[in-house]
Design a protein that fits this description.
TIM Barrel; 8 strands; globular; binds hypoxanthine; binds zinc ion
């Protein structure tokens, strides 16, 4: 996309990784209705416009209620494949060359969908997406924190035959009242399986939840983490230890974490040296994909090219890919800046 801001053009064009996107949150209204028809399901909305009109959230929970309701249209392996393909096609447009994609198996297994159909469908989508658009992608299995640790452990046991398809584990859903300390045994088990773990923390919840995610779960990245600024010693620790923050700017506005983008804490965190990355979270629900987030951030903060380079580089460094793969992506990023920057 051409704009009058050459820095914005470069940020949109640069290769980057997306590390915080929920595949169920990429379900656009048109695909939701298509899958509903295919599966003989009636959505409680007259049409796509009526569904889109319901995207008026005042907090995380108000979004989650709709997000889980819409996920009901996902029934078969083909549905999960088609959802993945639609996201990867859209990601490629924004020059996302690598994505680590959250999925919520409990949302589907609780409705009787076999976990093998969920993971098998996603893997088929990832393989086809790589062949068609060259986007590299892997899966992060997220546990729903509003459910019990026992439910999470049972889900992990169901997922064990498919571990080769899972790059790591995460924690999402309703944050307030569901602190990371609730899941210590579950995350210890995930780490025993040799996989990295991440956790949503400090989105709506307090900085203490970020400390728990690090200290009690061994989280290698913090998803959101934007409330860390309320605790300067915690920010100093995040900077010192290079803990990546997967920040989702449009999500935070749509869920009323901040009233306006100008109030978002990402600019201060970046200036402090925190390892900030930009991500879309649930792009179908929050007003846009990767480059929509970049445009909204740039309109508020007018970052220079060096700042965008830093965030893209952070996205590759923070990924769970092999070191040689990361180096190859960073070389691609350097080339984009050598020509344009
Ligand atoms: N926060 C917590 N859980 C989620 C989110 C989010 O933004 N999106 C999907 N599940
Ligand atoms: Zn999220």
């Amino acid at each position: 996309m051409t704009t009058h801001d050459p820095v914005l053009d470069l940020a949109c064009r640069m290769p980057k990784a997306e590390l915080h996107v929920h595949i169920e949150g990429t379900l656009e209204p048109d695909l939701a209705f298509k899958l509903a028809r295919r599966n003989g399901i009636t959505l409680p909305y007259a049409d796509e416009a009526a569904l889109a009109a319901a995207y008026d959230f005042d907090c995380l929970q108000s979004f989650l209620d709709l997000y889980y309701a819409c996920a009901d249209v996902l029934r078969t392996a083909d549905d999960f494949r088609d959802l993945m393909l639609a996201y990867l096609e859209r990601a490629a447009v924004d020059n996302v060359i690598h994505a680590e994609i959250f999925f919520d198996p409990q949302t589907h297994t609780a409705r009787g969908v076999p976990i093998g159909d969920v993971i098998g469908g996603f893997v088929a989508g990832i393989e086809a997406g790589r062949a068609r658009w060259g986007v590299d992608a892997s899966l992060i299995l997220c546990f729903l924190r509003h459910l019990s640790e026992e439910d999470g452990l049972a889900t992990l046991a169901e997922a064990e035959p498919y571990l080769e398809h899972i790059v790591g584990f995460g924690l999402d859903s309703s944050e307030k009242g569901h602190p990371p300390r609730k899941f210590q045994r579950l995350f210890a088990r995930c780490r025993e399986l040799g996989k990295p773990v991440v956790a949503h923390a400090g989105e709506e919840g307090p900085p203490e939840y970020i400390r728990e995610a690090l200290d009690l779960l061994g989280s290698q990245r913090i998803d959101h983490g934007v409330r860390s600024v309320e605790d300067p010693a915690l920010v100093a620790r995040l900077v010192r230890d290079g803990i990546p923050l997967t920040v989702c700017p449009l999500s935070n506005i749509r869920l009323c974490v901040f009233d306006k983008m100008e109030q978002h804490t990402l600019a201060d965190l970046l200036a402090d040296g925190a390892k900030v990355t930009i991500n879309s979270d649930d792009p179908a629900y929050f007003g846009g994909y990767m480059n929509d987030n970049i445009r909204a951030v740039q309109a508020a903060f007018h970052f220079n090219a060096a700042a965008w380079y830093r965030m893209a580089r952070n996205s590759f460094e923070a990924s769970f890919a092999e070191p040689a793969q990361k180096a190859a992506w960073i070389a691609q990023l350097d080339a984009a800046f050598a020509v344009d920057g």
